[in-house]
Amino acid sequence: MIYLDNSATTKPDPAVLESFQQTSGRFFANPSSLHPFGGESEKLLTKAKKQAADLLHVQDEEIVFTSGGTEGNNLAIKGIALEHQTRGNHIITTDVEHPSVDEALKGLEQLGFEITYLPVDENGVVSVSDVKNAIKDKTILISIMHVNNELGSIQPVQEIGEIAKEHPKLFFHVDNVQGFGKVPLKIAESGIDLCTLSGHKIHGLKGTGILYVKQGTALFPLFHGGNQEQNLRSGTENLAGAVSLVRALRLISERKCEGIEHMRGLQRQLRERLIEMEGVEINTPEDAAPHIMNVSVPGMKPEVIIHMLGVQEIYISTKSACSSKQSDESKILAACGHEKDRSVSALRISLAYDTTEEEIHVFMNALSETIDQLKTILE
Amino acid sequence: MQYDHILIRYGEMALKGKNRKSFIMQLEHNLQQQLKDYPKTKVKRTQGRMFVLLNGHDPEDVMEKCKNVFGIQSMSLAIKVRNDEDEIHDAALWALKNAIDVKTFKVTVKRVDKKFPIRSQDMNQTLGKYLLLNTNGFTVDVHKPDLELKVEIRTEATYITTSVVPGLGGLPVGTSGKTLLMLSGGIDSPVAGFLAMKRGVEIEAVHFHSPPFTSDRAKQKVLDLAEKLTSYGNKVNVHVVPFTKLQQHIFREMPENYAMTIMRRIMMRICERVCRKESILSITTGESLGQVASQTMESMNTINEVTNFPILRPLVAMDKDDIVRVSKKIDTYDISIRPYEDCCTIFVPKSPKTRPGREKVNQFESQTDFTELIEEAVKGIEVVTLSGKIDAEKEFDDLL
User: Which GO terms describe its molecular function (chain A) (predicted)?
Assistant: First the structure.
């Protein structure tokens, strides 16, 4: 099997699975229980939180364990909107956000919030001055992703953070689900108030995630109850999930320097081969994140290519898995200004640290054969 | 591209005459200890400075660790390139683009290797021009730049460094002998230990434990505090003294308002015993003048009578607010405020003598013989060694 759909989800690291299983079996006590067994669970949770904070260079109390990217994005966006609605009702975002941001904002729109969707250039990147100009007195939140999930484009979050710093009354949320371990981001130093991470994109388990909430940032919780997770997310802690996620964070952090270089090398090879291929157009910009390569084959149905590669146990995807069940057109590619024949024919190849040169080689040969075959059929 | 070195400057130490070499060796050793978890890093000494070679480890993570080492004045991330104009240009451009919170910059080229064909002044200009042409939004400010980009062209290579990050200062732990820190579990004593370490002192700790009046969690609290202190030096031995019998005896036999003073005198006697046994030359306490009854000048005078070992009191001139600030900085505050009884908070007399005189105290003490009980307490000392990663730290390592 050649798995090149790592932006949809990744294979859990065996060490992460082991950690989940061990923690579930050994530390099943509720961390809130007063007895010593509960105390042990609490100690483990505290240590997991501390390790996560150390790895992200933030404070322990700024880590909120969640069920993943979608929850993190919803908690950040709705949490700010509901908590601070008396201050203002305006939110700024882009045209290329993940559905968990996009749809959350659409929901708020129905409640009377005003959302500004900023356009992106042909590389999928928002302009910093557009963000600056969109800010009004009643703006309470800017929500912009770090790395785009379909294209790999990197948004200038650091610069936007600088602008956010100049407006102390508004909050800045960054969806970093695709960025962690691929494009370095100094959360604490970049003017970011909220930052979403997901476990299963970094060889952790589904149902695990972290929302970074900067000290002093008030949120209206999505879940009310026993006031776990600094009162921001009630519900008995998913201790095994949290512990396994922190292990995944550590494993990625230990490997990220060489991992990023390695993927960049593979991406370069992909680009060199793809440029040569007739009828293939490269959508991912040159300075994108190292793990995504998005291409279009105008005139060919991407599903057909996916299925033909699938027969050979090579797995890539069309656009993002989260939206691939909906209409044919990639909203992201359309937002970049691409013609319809290009935005309906996109393929996404996404890499992991463990992807090998050999796999890329085999995949490229298979892809070019597949396209050649299709061409003869279509002719 | 990536930062591959950390440049370490050690200021004060460089002045220390004949001791200089041993100071530097100690700093090198302490750095190596601190970076144990980053096995590929290497510490290298050159004239007047030190480098940490990262060999692929994350620069920020390693820098964070270096911030715990006394004797470092400041640090900078550095990129090493060959003495080649294009390579220098590329690396400088990368460093500028990756700097945070920077709008203005300045280039300072230092050409140590005179064989390099371009003179420093010319290089300043061409490099500055190259950076301006290839970036957006930066301007040059030679007087007060946000970022000074230093390019040092040496014979072996060129080093490019950016922001200067302050280190902890002080002297490398291990260059000024050893002290015995009285660690109660409160806010003050760990701060006193930290400040002693700052002057290059290695510490061992002593703790008086009175079960069942003080719980195991109180003892654990002290071990956790000692553990925190290990992050600024090497291992810390904690001498846990079984104190129940002595304490009960003092409070039964001695007048209530003098019991506190006498208790502290006995603690001092035990401390001196530990010092002699472990070849430790001084005792360190978290006392500050006038904070509580035992910390008046009279009290100090009377307590101090029982030992002629020097007693270091690094906090003597500090206000409580300042002490709390340091304890938060070194991360001991949250441990210190855990609500467990310690040996000083049980048996608190209703009105302790704030001005206990030596004569009176000696007179009371002569009425009873503590020798045997002291002997028994010293024999019963349990030594717990904390070495940076004790069981509590390692406890869940198989899971995390």
Answer: cysteine desulfurase activity; iron-sulfur cluster binding; metal ion binding; transaminase activity
Do A85 and A213 share a domain, yes or no? yes
Q: What is the CATH number of the domain that holds A266?
A: 3.90.1150.10
Q: Is residue A336 annotated as part of the catalytic site, yes or no?
A: no
Please tell me the distance from the alpha carbon of residue B133 to that of residue B138, in angstroms, as a whole number.
10
CA distance A278 to chain B (A): 32
Residue A158: its chain B contacts at CB < 8 A? 100
Q: Report the residue from A44, A162, A257 with minimal CB separation from B58.
A: A257
Mean pLDDT of B26-40: 90
Question: In the Cβ-directed half-sphere of B395, how many Cα atoms lie within 13 Å?
Answer: 14
ipTM rounded to 2 decimals = 0.74
CA A211/CA B283 separation, integer angstroms: 46
> Are A224 and A276 in a shared domain?
no
Sheet of strand B282-284: strand arrangement: B311-312, B282-284, B178-182, B202-209, B236-242, B382-386
Q: Residue A75: its pLDDT value, please?
A: 98
CA distance B165 to B146: 13
* CA atoms within a 13 Å half-sphere pointing along the CA-CB vector of A191: 23
Which residue, of A234, A251, A268, is where some domain finishes? A251
Q: Do A247 and B100 touch (CB under 8 A)?
A: no
Claim to verify: residue A47 and residue A183 sit in the same structural domain: yes
The model's pLDDT over A146-188, given as tens digits with 9 standing for 90+, comes to 999 999 999 999 999 999 999 989 999 999 999 999 999 999 9
pLDDT surpasses 80 at B151: yes
Residue A191 zone, left/alpha/beta (φ > 0; ψ -120 to 50; rest):
left
Mean pLDDT (chain B) is: 88
User: How far is Cα B214 from Cα B237, in angstroms, rounded to an integer?
Assistant: 20
pLDDT per residue as tens digits for the range B305-340: 999 999 999 999 899 999 999 999 998 998 888 777
Total domains, chain A: 2
Quick count: other Cβ atoms within 10 Å of Cβ A76?
30
Residue ranges of the annotated binding site of B for ATP are 182-183, 207-208, 264, 286, 295
- Give the position of tokens 């929901």: A107
pLDDT class for B37, splitting at 50, 70, 90? confident
Q: Please report which helix (H) or strand (E) contains residue B39, including its range.
A: none
Mark whether A236 and A275 lie in a shared domain. no
Nearest CA to CA, how far is A296 from chain B (Å)?
30
CA dist A317 and A279 (Å) reads: 18
| Positions at the binding site of B | 182-183, 207-208, 264, 286, 295
Final residue of a domain: which of A251, A266, A296? Answer: A251
Residue A326 shares a structural domain with residue A193: no
Whether B391 shows a pLDDT value over 50: the answer reads no
In chain B, which residues have their Cβ closer than 8 Å to the Cβ of A28?
none
Task: Please report the pLDDT score of residue B385 as a whole number.
Answer: 92
Residues of B in contact with A247 (CB under 8 A): 399-400
**A309 and A225: one domain?**
no
Q: In this predicted model, what pLDDT tens digit does every residue of A95-145 receive, in sequence order?
A: 999 999 999 999 999 999 999 999 999 999 999 999 999 999 999 999 999
Model pLDDT, residue A195: 98
Domain range for residue A335?
A: 2-8+256-378
Q: Please report, for the domain that includes residue A77, its CATH number.
A: 3.40.640.10
Clarify whether residues A183 and A41 are in a common domain: yes
Residue A104 confidence (pLDDT): 97
Sign of the four-CA dihedral A52, A55, A61, A66: negative
Interface with chain B: mutation pick from A13, A23, A47, A59, highest number of B CBs within 10 Å: A47
Regarding whether A323 and A236 lie in a shared domain, the answer is: no
What pLDDT, on a 0 to 100 scale, did the predictor assign at position A327? 58
Q: Which residue has the higher pLDDT, A16 or B257?
A: A16
